[in-house]
Amino acid sequence: MLQNIRVVLVNTSHPGNIGGAARAMKNMGLLRLVLVDPVDFPSGEAVARASGATDILDAAQVVGTLEEALVGCSLVLGTSARDRRIPWPLLDPRECGVASCEQAAQGGEVALVFGREYAGLTNEELQRCQFHVHIPSDPQFSSLNLAAAVQVLAYEVRMAWLAAQDRPTKVAKLETTAMLDMQPVTADELESFYAHLELSLVEIGFLDPAKPRHLMSRLRRLYGRSGISKLEMNILRGILTETVKAARGEHHRQGKSDV
Amino acid sequence: MLQNIRVVLVNTSHPGNIGGAARAMKNMGLLRLVLVDPVDFPSGEAVARASGATDILDAAQVVGTLEEALVGCSLVLGTSARDRRIPWPLLDPRECGVASCEQAAQGGEVALVFGREYAGLTNEELQRCQFHVHIPSDPQFSSLNLAAAVQVLAYEVRMAWLAAQDRPTKVAKLETTAMLDMQPVTADELESFYAHLELSLVEIGFLDPAKPRHLMSRLRRLYGRSGISKLEMNILRGILTETVKAARGEHHRQGKSDV
C-alpha cells in the first residue's frame, strides 16, 4: 500500500536536502521519490545525508515538470505555507496521512508535493494539488527545513498506515519473560500487599496504629495508580519480608535479590 | 507553557544536527535546548543548519552530565530504539506530545532526551527516563536522523498544545493542600530517592551489591512511571529512614506517621 505513495520534490536547491528526504522516507517505509528539475543531482552530498537510503536515490525518477511527476496520481497533496490568496481545501499533516493511506488502500496513486527551500510551490503548482497541507509551525518562525517537512508528513503517513492495519504504533514485541514481567496484579493481590505493607510499617515504627492519619490511603493511591506487575509485586513483597526480619533482629546480612 | 519543555541532546557528534534540532524546535515553538557534553559546539555548521534559530543556539545550556540537564524536571522522556532487555513504559510520539503538554500545563518541567547519532542513549541514561518514546519506523531501516527525530517529537508537542488550547479551560481548581500533594517530584529528587532505596535494600539484606541483577532497574521503572508527588516522596523517604534504623537495631517502637 505504501508503495502507492510517492514523494515529489520540486526544484530543490540543496542536494543535502534530497538525501535527508530520502532517509526520512525510508525510515517511514516510503520508497518512491520523484525529483522535478533538481538543481544539483546526483550528488555526493545527497548520498552522505541519505545515510544508507541510497537505494531510494538510485531509483529516484528525475523529470522536467510537475505535470510529469504527477502522472497516474488520483490524489495530489501540496505542502504550503498559509495565507495564500485563494483559500484552498487545507489539511493538517495528520489528515494528510489518513487521506493518503485511504486513497492508497483503494488502489489510487498519491503524491506528496514539496516546493523549493525558500520559495515553496508557486501558485500555479499549488493549483495542481487537490489539497494543501500545512504543517502547523510558529507563525514567527514558520519555515521548516525541506527534509524535516518530508519527515513530518512521512511520519503521519506511517502512523495512519499502522492504524489502518490495526498494528500498534508502539512496538510491543515482548519476549515471554518480558510478558510475565508486565502481567498486572489482581485486586486481591494488591490488597494482600497493602496488608503486608501496613504490618511492616507498624513493625519498623513508622505507622502508629492508634494514630494512622492518611498514611495508608496515600500509599494506596500511589501504588494503585502505578499498575504494578506480578514480578514487581514479588519484589515489593520480598522487600517487606526482609524489612520485618531486619526490624526483629532476624537479620543475617546476605544477598537476597534474586531478580 | 511550551517554555516548560526542554530538549536535551546527549553527546551529539555532528554540530549540523544541533543546528537542525534548534531549527526544528523553533519551528514548533520550543525554545530551551540543553546540550550534554557535545563533541563540537559552538560551531559554524550548527549556525548554518539552524537557519535563523541562532537565538536557541546562543541560549543553549551546555552541561557535563545528563543529571545536570534534568535538574528540576518532573517528567523525563527518552527516545529509544526497541528491544531493550527490560521492557519500559513506552509511548509513541503522539502520546509523548500529550503527556508533555499535560505535565507542562500543571507547571511541571519536561525533558525530551535524545541520544547519540549512532549509539542512542545508554541503558543507564534510559533508566533515568520515566518513559521511553519510540518513533515508529520501518524495522528494516529504523534509525532516524537526530534533527528529524527532534522534529517529529516537537511537532507532536505542538499538535497537542494546539489541541489543548482549543479545549474549554479544564478548571483544575485544586485547593492549596491538594496542590502541594500533587506537586510532582523532580528528576534529582527521584535520584536521591533511588540512592536511599538502594542503600536501604543493602542494609536489610535484600540487595547484594555483588549480585545486583536487575533489581534497581525494575524499581526505577516502577517508581518512575508512578508520577510521585512531593508529599508521597516524603512518605517513602520516611519509610526508608525508619527501615534502616530498625535494621540497625535503633528501633524504638513508637508511632512515626505524621501525615
TrEMBL record, chains A, B:
Gene: trmJ
SUPFAM superfamilies per record: alpha/beta knot (SSF75217)
GO biological process terms held by the UniProt record: methylation
InterPro entries given in the database record: Alpha/beta_knot_MTases, RNA_MeTrfase_TrmJ/LasT, SpoU_MeTrfase, tRNA_m1G_MTases_N
Keyword Transcription: no
Assembly: Homodimer.
Family listed: Belongs to the class IV-like SAM-binding methyltransferase superfamily. RNA methyltransferase TrmH family.
Top-level class of the enzyme under EC nomenclature: transferase
Domain tRNA/rRNA methyltransferase SpoU type stretches: 5-155
EC number from the UniProt entry: 2.1.1.200
Protein name listed in UniProt: tRNA (cytidine/uridine-2'-O-)-methyltransferase TrmJ
Protein's cellular compartments: Cytoplasm
Gene3D superfamilies: 1.10.8.590, 3.40.1280.10
Coiled-coil boundaries: none
Listed CDD domains: SpoU-like_TrmJ (cd18093)
Function: Catalyzes the formation of 2'O-methylated cytidine (Cm32) or 2'O-methylated uridine (Um32) at position 32 in tRNA.
GO molecular function, one term: tRNA (cytidine(32)/uridine(32)-2'-O)-methyltransferase activity
Catalytic activity: cytidine(32) in tRNA + S-adenosyl-L-methionine = 2'-O-methylcytidine(32) in tRNA + S-adenosyl-L-homocysteine + H(+); uridine(32) in tRNA + S-adenosyl-L-methionine = 2'-O-methyluridine(32) in tRNA + S-adenosyl-L-homocysteine + H(+)
Alphabetical keyword list: Cytoplasm, Methyltransferase, S-adenosyl-L-methionine, Transferase, tRNA processing
Record keyword Iron-sulfur present: no
